[in-house]
């Protein structure tokens, strides 16, 4: 009887461009990022402005897979952020079309977002990562509109968004949380 060979699966990240800043490597997700991402989502300092509760493993895994799918289907998505000095996964930044149930709707408009582990806050990493993502986005989307949503209590993210040209255009509620909607037109 013939034995059936066991396939060896190697993740293909060739569709995700790699961006590099002075201190960060922005790349596609790797399976080894999963445990660190789960730990990030378990930390109340990390998720306090994002969700009312931590994400469970299943939700974190779906988040990673959704980003990979965005790159494959849309040509954009989220990058995993790796600290060059340590090689540690410290967060994510990028663009998505999440088809949110929010008014006004932004379906079809790239939405930028960023999340960093609590231990990476206050080091300028978010500024570095968002700047690189926006430069890539301007080249990709030209002068088109991008948006972001931020909890109004998240003053650091609001300042960062405004630093890079995002302006508030609407206040609403999303998933029972107050939300500021911001927009920016690219400089492509």
UniProtKB/TrEMBL annotation:
Residues 24-186 form the N-acetyltransferase domain. One of its GO terms (molecular function) is acyltransferase activity, transferring groups other than amino-acyl groups. Pfam families: Acetyltransf_3. Keywords: Transferase. SUPFAM superfamilies: Acyl-CoA N-acyltransferases (Nat). This is GCN5-related N-acetyltransferase. The lineage of its organism: Bacteria, Pseudomonadati, Bacteroidota, Cytophagia, Cytophagales.
